[in-house]
Design goal:
Porin, 4 helices, single chain, mainly beta, 2 domains, 53% strand, 446 residues, Ubiquitin-like (UB roll)
């Protein structure tokens, strides 16, 4: 019986066996074919036995380049066919941003003086090689100029890449301390109080599809007016009560990215580990290690689950205020605490979310506009719980009551996803103290 079963399975596999003799790519008017071929799970000369897997995996990898609005991979014959619909790659666009840590914080005051406006010139898929060039100019609350250039591959094997960025900015207001778990601001006669400069170069090695190794080094400088580091404001804002802080740093980042869609993942996993060391003003050293892992599950056709954990360990000889940002900054926050910060060096953060997909269609969009006449749109109902703790010394707590205590938040919401990676989250959250309200965000939570 067992032998008969094995023969049946072998016959089924042989029936599905396809030898790839050539690959035909259509729709890539600008994109170099090598960039597309690099992401496929097969190559010319391969014999495949599960075409559905290779079609699905290759499509996801190509969509994760953020170069195409839609991708179709056809393996019904020995000639593999890849059809892509390219995005627009040059976007000179006006920008309107806010000075606060997130949109919800700014909406409390709606102060137009705290808006940041400007224009960006973003060139994606530069030279057809998936290179990215960005020029950013900002005015208003923050004066900023920056340049970044990403080259995903510069060698023949398409395994080594290069990143470069440089930035200079200034502000007339400084986040100078945390009081009652909220960031406080200092302003002095409408003059520039803080200037920042930075430059960084990195090398990325991607031998396989899912694993990335990045080595980087750079320089950051912060210069503040003497009033900022006075006893009356915060004499521990920078290292050693100085007005200029120079930081040389180097680090290593390992990433294993097996998510189906990077913009809004539903299946797969993401692992990141970062180690970084810094030298401040040629006298002070710092070190940090950060670990994060997220796992995504498809429970059935409409239900999904996502879980993540993030840990950070930092070590400073003496800690300046501008280096104790923990939870409440960037994407490290507990939902329900968007209006608060929890400062410290070491923290742990966990998140769990359930999603129900109740709408998934491709709709007419910009009629007559090439490559944008349709839009894939998906809607999800979500429920979630986030939790975490920040560990810090009692001398830094002052009137801040959230560090060194377990915090959690929970709620539900609506997620809107377009083109697989444009996300809007509308959520109603509660924190540990049952403070509750609506929050709006434009990135994935996990």
């Amino acid at each position: 019986m067992l032998l008969g079963f094995v023969n049946i399975v072998d016959s089924q596999n042989l029936a599905q066996k396809i030898e790839i003799k050539s690959i035909e790519i259509n729709g890539n008017k600008h994109t170099n074919s090598q960039i597309i071929l690099r992401e496929l799970s097969f190559k010319v000369g391969d014999t495949i036995y599960n075409k559905e897997f290779h079609q699905d995996q290759s499509r996801k990898q190509l969509l994760n380049l953020y170069l195409f609005n839609e991708v179709k991979v056809d393996l019904d014959s020995q000639v593999a066919k890849v059809n892509v619909i390219e995005r627009w790659y040059i976007w000179p666009s006006p920008k309107l941003d806010y000075a606060d840590r997130n949109l919800n914080q700014w909406l409390l005051t709606k102060d137009p003086k705290r808006l940041i406006y400007g224009i960006d010139l973003e060139i994606y898929n530069f030279r057809g090689r998936n290179e990215t060039v960005k020029l950013n100019f900002r005015g208003g609350y923050t004066k900023l100029m920056s340049l970044s250039y990403v080259i995903p591959y510069f060698n023949k094997k398409l395994s080594w890449g290069l990143t470069f960025n440089a930035m200079t900015s200034s502000n007339k207001e400084v986040w100078y301390k945390t009081d009652s778990n909220k960031v406080q601001f200092f302003k002095d006669n409408d003059r520039d109080l803080i200037r920042r400069k930075s430059v960084e170069i990195g090398f990325v090695h991607r031998k396989k599809i899912f694993n990335y190794h990045r080595i980087y080094t750079g320089f950051r400088q912060i210069n503040v007016k003497d009033t900022v580091v006075s006893v009356d404001v915060n004499d521990r804002y920078l290292f050693g009560k100085v007005t200029t802080q120079n930081e040389w740093y180097s680090g290593y980042l390992y990433t294993s990215d097996k998510r189906d869609f990077k913009g809004y993942p539903l299946q797969g996993s993401l692992l990141k580990m970062t180690t970084e060391i810094g030298l401040f003003n040629t006298a002070e050293f710092s070190g940090q290690f950060k670990f994060s892992y997220a796992k995504y599950f498809k429970l059935n056709k409409r239900f999904f689950n996502a879980n993540s954990i993030t840990l950070r360990l930092m070590e400073f000889y003496s800690v300046p205020y501008n280096k104790i940002t923990a939870l409440g900054y960037d994407r490290d926050y507990i939902r329900g605490y968007e209006l608060y910060v929890i400062d410290g060096l070491n923290f742990g953060l966990g998140k769990s979310e359930f999603k129900y997909c109740f709408f998934n269609k491709t709709l007419p969009f910009l009629k007559g506009v090439n490559n944008y006449n349709q839009i894939p749109l998906t809607l999800y109902l979500t429920s979630f719980v986030d939790y975490g703790v920040v560990v810090t010394s009692k001398s830094r707590m002052s009137s801040n009551t959230y560090p060194n205590k377990f915090q959690y938040g929970f709620g539900s919401g609506l997620n809107v996803v377009a083109y697989y990676d444009y996300v809007m989250r509308i959520e109603y959250s509660f924190n540990k103290f049952l403070n509750n309200r609506f929050y709006l965000s434009f990135v994935t939570a996990i």
